[in-house]
């Protein structure tokens, strides 16, 4: 969605899940797993327990598949934008499916539901609707995002009031 020339962009953020293991570290981890599995499998083979070697290979393969699924899930993201006319959340899942949520910024309110110190939810409410977003962020990051959005909403509102004829 593009912003018209008359619309001012007040907030724009792309939210994506954090992955602490980069591609290079993943390759090194898989090499280490493969070497350990091969050496362990060879020890069992020399002891006469040859079927165990296949299980070590299977373990390494399952670890690889689990990490690949994790990286595939990391392709999901949300884009949160506030303009003069819209507050939008565009959600793209890991398979590339896109969902667009739009709220009138004059009526939208940012809420944080705190369950305990390490668990919270950020949502936007408007006209009886409640939409939870930013679930890929940590609890502290959600609080920071809520604060930044509240500041952006306040700046937008104040600017709209002073710009009114």
Descriptors:
PH-domain like; 28% strand; 3-stranded antiparallel β-sheet; 2 domains; alpha+beta; 3 helices
Strands of the largest sheet, in order across it?
1-2-3-4
CATH T-level topology of the largest domain: PH-domain like
- Number of strand segments: 7
- How far the N terminus sits from the C terminus, by CA atoms, comes to 28 Å
Rg, Å, rounded: 24 Å
Q: Which range best describes the helical content: under 10%, 10-25%, 25-40%, 40-55%, 55-70% or over 70%? A: 40-55%
Question: Which secondary-structure class do the elements indicate?
Answer: alpha+beta
CATH A-level architecture of the largest domain:
Roll
Question: What is the average per-residue confidence, as pLDDT, rounded to a whole number?
Answer: 89
Q: Which range does the strand content fall in?
A: 25-35%
- Give the overall shape: elongated
N-to-C series of helices and strands:
EHHEEEEEEH
The main pleated sheet reads as: 4 strands, antiparallel
CATH class of the largest domain: Mainly Beta
Total number of distinct structural domains: 2
pLDDT < 50 stretches: none
């Amino acid at each position: 969605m593009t912003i018209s020339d008359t619309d001012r962009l007040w907030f724009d953020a792309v939210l994506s899940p954090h992955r602490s293991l980069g591609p290079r570290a993943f390759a090194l981890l898989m090499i280490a797993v493969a070497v350990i599995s091969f050496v362990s499998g060879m020890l069992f083979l020399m002891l006469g327990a040859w079927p165990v070697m296949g299980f070590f290979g299977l373990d390494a393969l399952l670890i690889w598949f689990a990490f690949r699924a994790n990286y595939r899930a990391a392709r999901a993201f949300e884009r949160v934008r506030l303009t003069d006319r819209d507050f939008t959340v565009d959600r793209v899942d890991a398979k590339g499916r896109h969902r667009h949520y739009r709220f009138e910024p004059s009526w939208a309110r940012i809420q944080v539901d705190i369950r305990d110190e390490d668990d919270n939810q950020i949502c936007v409410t408007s006209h009886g609707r409640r939409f939870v977003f930013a679930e890929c962020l940590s609890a502290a990051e959600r609080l920071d995002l809520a604060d930044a959005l509240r500041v952006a909403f306040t700046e937008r509102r104040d600017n709209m009031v002073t710009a009114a004829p």
